[in-house]
Design goal:
about 450 residues; alpha/beta; Rossmann fold; 2 domains; ten-stranded mixed β-sheet; six-stranded parallel β-sheet; globular
Length: about 450
């Protein structure tokens, strides 16, 4: 159990015990400020914004950004629309974590991801901006915060974690970070008139995962796994592009040859649908198939328990779980989707997207060939330490930050904000908007 301090904007402070409860935190009529007090940064104040604190790769990257940036140069605050209380402890990596409690589920897809929501829907975020002066924001995914920060003349770094529908919008950012060369090529295709872009690959704090295997027996006991039978791991969201059903299908096929094989499914959120489909395929839940949602602090236990990890995605930016698994010494089988080949080439086995026969065969190959397994583990750990260090990542990001903080964009006038919203609604309805109208409204 972890204790955090919650402070409301009226100064009211309460201590909250965060336990494993898979439900959103209680809604409030104002933002909820989580004050972990672990980072103690000073210097330039940076905000980091993403949509939802629920255990995904975006927040893993943002946590590592905060941990990698020097505390003697930067204060780093995090903002999210909503959060699951089980994942609030990730806030300890920041100076503050602000949960805005805006009605995110009520937003339309365009309001979530494009610059087309009325500014009034970001009232909580605006209140937070007025409380403190930010030198810069790093933003992922949601469009509305881009425009609110732009109104206040705050420089913005737009973080591209991979291709998504939001990436086609014309965001008012001064710089873009792409997490892989593949993602940078997507920027060039979908955003031909983009801000200056820099490739900064995702990275991990190697020490966080390097000793995971020492916890193997304890991890297997926690998950209810056999202490001796081999374990195949799937770690990621249970969303269509991640193809978790391929992992379950490959497991059932591999189990025909290796009857004592076990499958461990780790996801940010549990899914009755995934359980039901897995049972239809032949996964025996609670017998040889186990499904858990883990807070960030416990994810290393999944790698501790695993003998091999499968990664069946059809697209990715770079794939944080790949870096974590390699650092923990878990051999990987992947489709090499998107930017994943930049991590995995030469240190993992590759299978075609959707080819569950090939994936099952690769699982059996690794589990049956000790020399292959040892080589993949050795080379994978070496690759992560050499090419994906958190400090190297942070040094590149600092250069981007330093290039922006002294060149703040001019704040928008009230008239520009009004015109911007009207034009944005026309754009959302596919109505023509002239270049002159866009310029007058401050939309670039």
């Amino acid at each position: 159990m972890i204790k955090l301090v919650h402070q409301k904007s009226n100064g009211e402070v309460s201590e909250v015990r965060v336990i494993s409860r898979h439900a959103p935190i209680d809604a409030a009529d104002e933002p909820l400020r989580i004050v972990p007090g672990d980072r103690h940064g000073r210097g330039l104040r940076i905000g980091v914004f993403w949509s939802y604190l629920c255990g995904g790769g975006v927040e893993t990257v943002n946590r590592d950004i905060a941990e990698g940036l020097p505390t003697d140069k930067y204060i780093v605050d995090a903002f999210v629309w909503q959060a699951l209380d089980t994942f609030l402890p990730v806030g300890r990596a920041f100076d503050d974590l602000i949960v805005l409690n805006e009605p995110f589920e009520g937003f339309s897809p365009q309001q979530r991801l494009g610059p087309y929501a009325p500014v009034s829907q970001g009232a909580g975020f605006q209140r937070m901006l007025l409380e403190r002066e930010y030198d810069l924001f790093i933003m992922s995914c949601c469009g509305l915060p881009f425009w609110i920060a732009r109104m206040h003349g705050i420089p913005i770094i737009e973080y591209w974690h991979g291709f998504g529908c939001w990436n086609g919008w014309a965001m008012p950012s001064q710089a873009i970070v792409a997490v892989s060369e593949t993602t940078q090529r997507q920027i060039e295709v979908f955003r031909p008139e983009h801000a200056p872009a820099t490739v900064i690959r995702n990275a991990v704090k190697f020490e966080r995962y390097a000793g995971a295997k020492e916890k193997g027996p304890m991890a297997r006991e926690r998950f209810g796994l056999s202490p001796t039978a081999p374990v195949m791991l799937y770690c990621g969201r249970l969303s269509p592009e991640k193809r978790p059903l391929d992992a379950m299908t490959a497991f059932v096929k591999a189990r025909e040859t290796l009857p004592d094989l076990q499958l461990l499914m780790i996801a940010p959120l549990q899914s009755d649908y995934a359980v039901r489909r897995g049972q239809e395929m032949g996964c025996r839940w609670g017998q040889d198939t186990f499904h858990f949602a883990l807070p960030h602090d416990d994810v290393e236990l999944a790698y501790a328990a695993a003998d091999v990890m499968v990664h069946p995605s059809e697209w990715e930016g770079l794939g944080m779980v790949l870096l974590e698994a390699l650092a923990a010494g878990v051999p990987v089988i992947s489709t090499f989707a998107g930017g994943c080949s930049e991590v995995l080439k030469g240190v993992a086995l590759k299978v075609p997207v959707g080819d569950t026969d090939a994936m099952a065969a690769a699982v059996l190959e690794i589990l049956g060939d000790g020399q292959l397994r040892d080589r993949l583990v050795r080379d994978g750990r070496r690759r992560v330490r050499r090419d994906f260090s958190l400090r190297g990542n942070s040094e590149k990001l600092e250069k981007v930050i330093e290039g922006l903080v002294n060149a703040r964009p001019q704040a928008l006038t009230g008239e520009q904000v009004t015109n911007q919203e009207l034009i944005a609604r026309r754009m959302a309805d596919a109505q023509p908007v002239s270049e002159h109208e866009r310029t007058e409204a401050g939309i670039t």
